[in-house]
Design a protein that fits this description.
The complex is a heterodimer of chains A (266) and B (471). Chain A is 65% helix and 3% strand. With 266 residues, chain A is mainly alpha-helical. Chain A has two domains: 19-141 and 231-257, no CATH class; 147-216, no CATH class. Chain A has a two-stranded antiparallel ribbon with strand order 1-2. The two termini of chain A are 45 Å apart. Classes of the chains: A mainly alpha (266), B alpha/beta (471).
């Protein structure tokens, strides 16, 4: 099942902030961190991210479950780099036949993995603590996104879980018709293609019907929309964005003072 | 209250040769409640779309005029509400209350009025949950009630209902009909399209029947229309109230064993179920929505791996393959022995023409080309699809698509046929053809399992029933 529901306790002080503020804070935080290649700044940032997690009402175990593809990717990168990176400078830490691990290689690999986690985690936190409807509302009301885009995307998003059921039904229906691929990889590829095509045709038809139904209820008819669920962007929301910038900036400053700072450009 | 006037109205969708609807002269007074009938393809849905102002001027060609309160319907859209057939594709928001509010926001209703009007609309349709109930957690009948509330919140003078109960089980359909009765008052003009006439009649005071070739076939109070045109309408596929259906139970006892289900289940969708299917019998699987009937059909059809228990084919059905469970057979072997007909016919279509669709199974199972041709021609003839042999399966009407999906399952002559709601939303003519076809197959020694809510179908055909309980 594709999960689109938020997992946070809704009352948590930072989870309650305006969705656009959370999104902006995450973007500001991540962009500042991208400026350096060293492991210290992202390590600090990651520590701060994990420390504020309770304020977003997300439990560590829940986060680990939600972010496991990210963690698996990070582990994969770490292993690959340690084993295969060309840079073999620095003192040797481990020499076991073909496997040669030096401190230089370890620092580079750790730096990359920490950056990946530190940059991606804010996004994961935002989407884990934000309801899709609230995000669309806030994008329209606070970020002046066109309703046609934000609400339209929201309606389409609601159909996504249906696609998975649809895929299973089409696959089973094909098997019932005597169509399967067996062990032939070429036939498998063809079957995948034709199932995907059937899924696409179905999705377009359903999307068209949805668009007509929205049309019938006056969507995008040129009348200025009112809002049933007002979203406020207040002082606390501004402070969240500013705070994110300050923390990321502080992490960079520490890295510069320690002399580990390695700029991305130049 | 709205008044509808049609003068020589016709509409042809861009790129089509045939007029979807043509030559319509009709006047519907303010506050009237009209049941709109007609054979499939007579243009009922197109007419409703036109009245809702949903046919853009550049999307086709118009003849004559259609007016709502003297206005072009495209300019009278805020007076009209419409509810469609499929609940999945007309709910927009994730929470029930937000969905009703959606239309109010679009029309620019002042924010402080929105929630009171949402609550009022939900109350009028008898919606049993709070506003924050996820729309995905609602049953089909509840979703249609919500869609009705979404239309009513806009306080339409003209309410159009396009087969709002066609995709629902009897309990869900009753929910929606009750909601329509509760929610409409003398101020609302109502136009309803519905196949199940007997159930819809209490909601209306006038019946209009469209003719297949265009124009109005019959018009008047329902008793009068059915007294005068009942026989002809029934022959055209309208479910005229009070007509009996034929009894087609098996003449003799059931034959040899085909398939045994031993504590067969798939938690949480279906609990352990015991079942035997024999040749020459029609078995109906009944039970409320959510009891796992469709899951049972997929398990029996060898399409899902069981979570508990086993499905075992008899040697008479599968020969030496009887030692392996059906879900592990290769697809061509499966389709020769067990045919499955899905609830949504379009899921099963794989090719570009009706002819190829029927030829697919026989070809996959290695029949020689002359035999394939003979099978295809016989099925086309038998199910009245000959003139559609070159048509794309996706362009067929609901009844045609259903007949084709049954025919595709028959093309490989499986001993056991498993059907999920084969009569859903069918007009009387297709319904009778399906009962005849299944009865003939059964009498020729096939085993037939149907998952169904259709009490008439069970009464007409089933030799035995199994009822699943809600879990």
């Amino acid at each position: 099942m594709i999960s689109i529901e938020p997992v946070a306790a809704p009352g948590a002080p930072l989870a309650r902030r305006n969705p656009v503020a959370k999104l902006a804070a995450a973007l500001v935080f991540s962009f500042i961190l991208l400026a350096t290649l060293d492991p210290v700044a992202p390590a600090l940032a990651l520590a701060v991210e994990l420390a504020v997690l309770p304020l977003f009402g997300v439990r560590y175990r829940v986060l680990a479950r939600r972010a496991w593809p990210l963690l698996a990717g990070a582990a994969g990168i770490l292993v690959t780099l340690v084993l295969f990176a060309a840079d073999r400078s620095g003192p040797v830490l481990l020499d076991a036949g073909p496997v040669l691990v030096t401190s230089g290689v370890l620092v580079t690999a750790l730096g990359l993995v920490l950056r990946l986690l530190a940059v991606a985690l804010p996004g994961v936190i935002v989407f884990a603590t934000t309801d899709a409807t609230d995000l669309a509302d806030a994008l329209v009301q606070n970020a002046k996104a066109p309703a046609r885009f934000a609400i339209g995307a929201l309606a389409a998003f609601r159909l996504v879980p249906l696609l998975e059921q649809e895929w299973q039904m089409i696959s089973m229906a094909r098997r019932a018709r005597g169509v399967d691929a067996g062990r032939n990889p070429l036939a498998k590829l063809r079957l995948f293609g034709s199932t995907a095509f059937a899924l696409l045709v179905g999705a377009i038809r359903r999307g068209t019907r949805l668009a007509v139904a929205m049309d019938a209820r006056g969507f995008d008819a040129g009348v200025p929309r009112t809002v049933a669920r007002p979203q406020r962007f207040g002082l606390a929301d501004g402070l969240l964005v500013a705070g994110a910038g300050l923390v990321a900036g502080a992490a960079l400053t520490v890295s510069v003072l320690l002399g580990t700072f390695r700029p991305l450009l130049g | 209250m709205s008044e509808v006037v049609l003068r020589g109205f016709g509409w042809r969708h861009a790129g089509r040769k045939r007029w979807a609807v043509r030559g319509l002269d009709l006047r519907i007074e303010r506050g009237e409640r009209v049941l709109l009938l007609g054979p499939s393809g007579a243009g009922k849905s197109t007419l409703l779309a036109a009245l809702a102002g949903l046919l853009a001027e550049d999307s086709g060609e118009q003849e004559g005029t259609a007016e709502v309160d003297g206005l072009d319907p495209r300019k009278a859209r805020e007076r009209v509400g419409i509810v469609f057939q499929d609940p999945e594709s007309q709910l927009v928001m994730a929470r029930s209350g937000d969905d009703v509010a959606f239309g109010l926001e679009n029309r620019g209703v002042p924010a402080e009025e929105i929630w009171p009007r949402v609550d009022e609309a939900l109350h009028r349709v008898g919606f049993p949950y709070r506003r924050d109930r996820p729309t995905a957690a609602l049953s089909g009948g509840e979703q249609q009630r919500l869609a009705l509330a979404g239309a009513l919140a806009l306080r339409p003078d003209l309410l159009l209902l396009d087969e709002p109960t066609a995709n629902l089980d009897p309990a869900g359909a009753a929910l929606v009909r009750t909601a329509v009765a509760r929610a409409t008052d003398d101020d609302t003009t109502l136009i309803l399209v519905e196949h199940r006439v007997a159930e819809a009649l209490p909601l209306v005071d006038r019946v209009v029947v469209l003719a297949a070739g265009g124009g109005v076939r019959a018009d008047g109070p329902s008793a009068e229309v059915f007294a005068r045109h009942g026989d002809a309408l029934a022959a055209e596929g309208v479910w005229v109230p009070g007509r009996t259906v034929p009894q087609r139970q098996a003449g003799g006892p059931a034959g040899y064993l085909l398939l045994t289900a031993d504590r067969l289940g798939l938690p949480p969708r279906l609990g352990p179920t015991d079942l035997r299917v024999r040749a020459g019998e029609a078995l109906a699987v009944l039970g409320p929505n959510g009891a796992g009937k469709s899951t049972l059909a997929l398990l029996l059809g060898g399409l899902l791996r069981p979570g508990t228990g086993t499905a075992t084919a008899s040697a008479a059905l599968a020969g030496r393959d009887a030692r392996t469970p059906p879900h592990r057979w290769r697809a061509p072997a499966l389709t020769r022995r067990i045919g499955s007909v899905f609830q949504d016919p379009e899921h099963q279509f794989v090719t570009g023409t009706v002819h190829d669709e029927l030829a697919l199974g026989p070809r996959r199972t290695g029949q020689p080309e002359p035999a394939v041709r003979a099978t295809v021609d016989a099925l086309l003839e038998r199910l009245g699809l000959s003139r559609l042999a070159g048509a794309n399966p996706y362009t067929l009407s609901g009844g045609e698509a259903r007949r084709l999906s049954v025919a595709t399952a028959l093309a490989t002559a499986p001993r056991l046929l498993i059907c999920d709601e084969p009569t859903f939303g069918q007009d009387r003519r297709t319904w009778l053809a399906l009962v005849d076809l299944f009865a003939e197959l059964r009498d020729a020694g096939h085993g037939i399992v149907t998952v169904t809510h259709d009490a008439d179908f069970v009464a007409a055909l089933a030799d035995r029933t199994v009822t699943l309980e809600r879990r």
